[in-house]
Amino acid sequence: MELRTYYPTIVLSDIHIGSEHSKTEEVTNFLKHVNCDRLILNGDIIDGWQLQKQGKRWKNKHTDFFKVLMKMMEKQGTEIIYVRGNHDDFLDHLAPMTFYNVSIVKEYLFHSFGKKYYVTHGDIFDSVTTHMRWLARLGDIGYTFLLWVNKIYNRQREKSGKPYFSLSQRIKSKVKSAVSYISDFEKELVALAVSKKADAIICGHIHQAADRWYGDIRYLNSGDWVESMTALVQNELGDWKIVKYNSRQQVSEDTWSNKILYPEVI
């Protein structure tokens, strides 16, 4: 019998299904090896911006992802909460809506293990995506180009036996304006959590997994499935950890099971 790891709550964000850089197969494989009571899909799961482009089409691997979600609902009774993001803002016309075990919302509040959590994708605090959509789309083109360059660069690194290197993450960590933006983003979301009388804020959007404390407020970011391939998981004691999918460790089912039981924690 296949061994699955149980987490009361799992949070995924920024899968960007429809983008050629989305790690759709990897996140699908991740979900095949876990059980959870609550799965929060925190925005930019489907990349509507990319799918609207000429030549883009829905693929079997995209359908496979949603088939796994349906099996989780049917066999495990998993509740799925889909929080809209800026790349899947076509859901604005549907939210809030609940059918079967799926809820489509713009924000989400829940209680777990005596704590109150406020969940938002985070784009509401990004003035570019909120007020300057044309500039956000231009930035999306630039980011897609950077990922293309990064892909070629890492092919050469792989041939030399070197590990994956993220150009975009390095830029974010070195460019002063990017560092300042991320810091301000976190502080704004923490302030929002305070206004909601929540103990923690859970978000995505900036593709930077994080687990930090700002005073009494915990800031949690689930990262992305374009480069970092990270998820937020809550254990049976109610605590949270960031787990990272590492495809190099996926040699066999046994190796995979061990990796999930003892995940790489950031």
From TrEMBL:
GO annotation (BP), single: lipid A biosynthetic process
Record carries keyword Protein transport: no
PANTHER family, per database record: BLL8164 PROTEIN, UDP-2,3-DIACYLGLUCOSAMINE HYDROLASE-RELATED
Keyword Metal-binding: yes
Name the UniProt record assigns to this protein: Calcineurin-like phosphoesterase domain-containing protein
Lineage: unclassified sequences, metagenomes, ecological metagenomes
Residue stretches making up the Calcineurin-like phosphoesterase domain: 8-208
GO MF entries: metal ion binding; UDP-2,3-diacylglucosamine hydrolase activity
Gene Ontology terms: cellular component: membrane
Alphabetical keyword list: Cell inner membrane, Cell membrane, Manganese, Membrane, Metal-binding
